[in-house]
Design brief:
The longest helix is centred in the middle third of the chain and has 8 residues, at 37-44. The protein has one helix at 37-44; strands at 5-17, 23-34, 61-66, 75-79, 83-88, 91-94, 99-101. It is mainly β.
């Protein structure tokens, strides 16, 4: 799906121990499919109580629904194709270690 967005990032919850004894955070990969912010809010805000998915998007932000469970949120936002954010109770938080993965389409 050429409309998907993929990125990789280092997650502090997972640590990789190398053969030389050094450690680093594991690099995780995420794939997202486009979703409107209004649809995401309706889909993800379930039950009573405070709405976790609320507020507005950032200017020029495209929202994606995570196709896997590697992010801090079931959806994420992207500004200008390079700045990647997760959402937490009305606040967009930028991933510091996220790197977009270019999508290449093969010609038939």
């Amino acid at each position: 799906d050429p409309s998907r967005f993929e990125f990789k990032f280092k997650h502090s919850r997972y640590v990789v121990r190398r053969a030389d004894g050094s450690e680093d955070f594991a690099e995780l990969y995420t794939v997202g499919l486009p979703i409107s912010w209004e649809h995401a809010k309706c889909k993800l805000n379930r039950g009573m109580g405070p709405k976790e998915y609320d507020g507005e998007t950032l200017p020029n932000m495209q929202v994606y629904e995570s196709a896997n469970d590697c992010t801090c949120s079931p959806c994420f936002g992207v500004v200008d194709g390079t700045q990647i954010f997760c959402h937490h109770f009305g606040i967009w938080i930028q991933y510091r270690t996220a790197t977009p993965i270019p999508i290449t389409c093969l010609e038939p």
